[in-house]
Amino acid sequence: MITLEINGARHELDADPAMPLLWALRDLAGLTGTKYGCGKALCGACTVHLDGEPVRACVTPLAAVEGRRITTIEGLSTDGSHPVQRAWTELDVVQCGYCQSGQIMSAAALLASAPKPSDADIDAAMAGNLCRCGTYQRIRAAIKRASELMEAPQ
Amino acid sequence: MTAHTSGEDSARTSRRMFLVGGGVVATGLLVPWYFAGRGAPSAGIAATRGPGLSANAFVHVAPDDTVTVWLAKSEMGQGVYTGLTQILGEELDVDPRRIKVEFAPVDAAFNHPHVPMQFTGGSMSTNSSYEQLRKAGATARAMLVAAAARRWSLAAASLETTDGQVVGGGQRAKYGDLAIDASELAPPRDVTLKDPAKFRYIGRSLRRLDSPQKITGRAQFGIDVIRPDMAHAAIARPPMFGGAVRSVDDRAARAVAGVLDVRQIAAGVAVLATNTWSARQGRDALEIEWAPGAEPDFSLATLRTRYQALLREPGAIATNTGDAAAALGNGARSLDVEYELPYLAHACMEPLNCVAQVTEHSCEIWTGTQMQTADRDAAAALLGFKPEQVSIHTTFLGGGFGRRGNPRADFVLEAVELAKAAGRPVKVTWTREDDMRGGWYRPFGLSRVRAAVDAAGLPIAWLHTIAAQPVLRGTQFEGFIPPGAPDPTVAEGAADMPYAIANLRVEVHEGASPVPVQWWRSVGHSHTGFAVNGALDELAQLGGRDPLELRRALLAGKPRHLAVLNAAARRARWGEAQEPGHHLGIALQESFGSIVAQVAEVSVERGAVRVHRITCAIDCGFAVNPGGVIAQMESAVVFGLSAALYGEIGIEHGGAVQSNFDDYRLLRISEMPFVDTILVASDGPMGGAGEPGVPPVAPAVCNAIFAATGKRIRRLPITSSL
Ligand code: FES
Ligand code: FES
Asked: Which of A18, B29, B442, B526 sees the fewest Cβ atoms within 10 Å?
C-alpha cells in the first residue's frame, strides 16, 4: 500500500512503487483531469504540482511522491476560480482542451514563483507544454491576464 | 422553404457541392431530408428523452425548463459546441449559455443534410448545420407559441418570445411550463426563420461554452471513460505496415502484476490488465515474432523513385483548359520544377483510444469519433449485429484533424473485437508511439510543375502532374469520385486554382503504397497549396514581377480573392521597409469554401528559420462566431507551421521511423509567431474555418525564406531542406 496526499485528501493505493504517478491518478484514483500525451516528459499534458512545483507525472514514479503534497487540475480550485482559470475563460484559450490541464498547471506554478512573468519567463516555463491546437498566443496573453487578476484586490 | 428536389437531383447536387468542398447549404436549393419527415425524432431517440417537447431530434424542452441541444457534430477543438448552440438558441430564442449540450447518439436523424452519414469533417460543420439547426430551433419555438396561444385563447401571431418565455396579451409563460402542451401538437410544416437583422447570438463572438469543463479537467475525453469492471488494454502492433503475428510467447507478460489476460486479435497481441501501466508492462514483456508485410523493404526512397517515374508519364486528367503543352513552348521563359511533401501524422494530443462493451445482443462504444455511422456499421458487421444493436457515446475529442474519422474504423473495431473476446468492458489506449507509427497519414506526394511566362512576365501555361495516394478511393466517400475521373482530393486546389492562366492542365497519378493514408486537416490542399503557391512565386521571379503584384494580376476578375489578398498584404506592409533581416512571403488558397491569404514575416540566421509573424486574412462568408473563426486561423497557422518546419514521417523497412514528440516535432510556445487575423467581410456563401487556414502557411513561409536567402524550398519539411 502506498499513501498519497492528492488535493488535500489521503489516498491508499495498492500499486507498484515504480508505477508512474500519472497512471495512479488516472486509473487508480479516478482523477482523469491529468492527461497522457507522450509518456516521456515531452508534452507536458500530465503536469501536476508536487509540493507546489510542476512535475511531469508520466515520468514520476509513485516511490518518489509518497508523503509529498500532490495537486492536480481537480485540486487547483474547487470551481474554476483560480486566476489562471478565469483568465483562460476570459480569453477563450481552450480548443480541444486536451493539453489544457497541463498548460494551466504549468502556468499556475509559473505565476506562483514569478507573479509578473516576462515573455522569456513564459517561454521557459511553458515550452515543455505542447498544444496541437495551437493555442500558444492566447496562453501567453492569458498568463499575463492572470497576473493582473492576481494583483487586483478581490 | 418548401421546394423539394428529387432524390437524384439531390444526390447529384450534393456530389458537386461536396467536391467543391464547402458552401453546401449556401445555394438554398436543397431541403434537408430530415425536415421532409415533419421533424419527428426517431423512436429510438424519443425513448431516451423524458417528458417535454422533443420538436425534432436536435432539441428538447423539459418541464423543468431545461433546454437541451444534441450536436450531430463532434467537438474536437473547432468550436461546434458553442457555434451550433448559438444557432439553435437564436431561433429558439433561448440564451445559448443556458442550453445544455449533449453529443448526439448515432442515428440517421443526425446525418449530414446531403450525405447519408453522421460525420464531422470537410470544414462543413457550421455551414451544413446552419439551416438544420435554425429550423430545429424555430420549429420548437413555434410549437411553444402555439401551445401558449391555445392555453390563453389568443392568436399565435399576437404572441412573442423573449429569452425562453412566451409573452403576449398580458400573459407570460416559461417554455418549460408549455413543454408538455406543446408536445401534443403537430410540428408545423413550415416555419419562418428570424430576420438576420434581428440576430442576438448568431454573428457574435460568444465565449466558448466548453471552457468551464476544459479548465477544470472535468471534460470527458474518450481516454477518460471508466466503466464498471473495465479492463485496460495495450496492443502490441506489427512494426511494419501489413505485418502480422507469426508466433507469440506471452508467459512473461502474464506474470506481470495486474495483467489479467493476453489475447491475439486482428490488430496484434492485446494485454488486458487492471490498469494502463500494467497493460503496457505486460505488452513490453511479450515475445512476438512478426511476419512481414508484402513489401518488407519498402521505404520512402522506393516510393519517391516510383513517383518520379510516374511524373514523366501522362496521368488522369483533373482539369484541362486551353493547350498547356503547346503553350509551354510559346513562352518567353519556362520552368520545370518538382515539389515534394512528406507523409504526416495527425498527432492529436489525445492518443487514439476506445472503450467498448459487447454483450450477446448489444455493443456499446465510448470514444471521440468523427464518423459515427461508419464506426457503427463496421462494429455491427464485425459482430454480425444489426446497426441498431450498436450504440455510440461520442465524447470530447482531444483533437481530430481527420484521424478520428477512420474509413476502416481501426481504433474502434479493435476495441470491439477485444471487448467481445474478453467478455467485459475494455479500454484500449494507444501509446504515443502506437499512434505515431500507426499509419493513416497525410499522403506523401510529388508535384511536377512545368510552366511558362510570356514576355510581359505573365504565366501562359501551367502543366501540373501530381502523384499521391488517393484518400477517398476505397472509402465510404468513393461515390464522390466521378466515374473514370481521378480522386478529386489529389488535385483539389490545383485543378481549381483561382488564377487566370489560359492554358492549364492538371494530371493525377493515384499512387499505391503499403502505408495507409487518410484525410489530414485540409486534405489535398495541404499539398497543392504548397506546390501552386511555390511555383507561382517562381514564375514571378522568372517574369521579373513582384509576387503580390503577379497574384493581383491573375486574380483581376475575382473581387473576393483580391480583397483577401490585399487585406493581408496591406496589414503586413508588403513592399514597405521591414525590420532589419526580416523578409516577407505571401500565399493564397481557396479551400472548403473560404479564401485565405497569409503573409509570413521570417528571418533566417545561420540556417535557422524564425517566423515572427503571420498575417492572415480570411473571407469565409458570414461567420456565425467570428471569434471562433479567428481562433481557428491561429490554430491552423500553428498546425501548418509544425508541418512546414518539422513534419515528416519517414518510412524504412516497411514501417514508420518517427515515434514520439522528440522525433516528430511540433511547434512550441517559444517558437510561436504573432498571428494577426483579419476577417474580410463578404456576402459570399458560408465557407469553412477549420481547415482553410492551413494550406497557405508552408508556401508563405518558404516564399519568405526565398526572399531572405534566395533559396527555393521545394521539399518539406524546411528543416531538412535548408
Ligand atoms: S505525458 Fe507526461 S509529458 Fe507527455
Ligand atoms: S487545446 Fe487541443 S491540444 Fe491544446
From this structure: A18
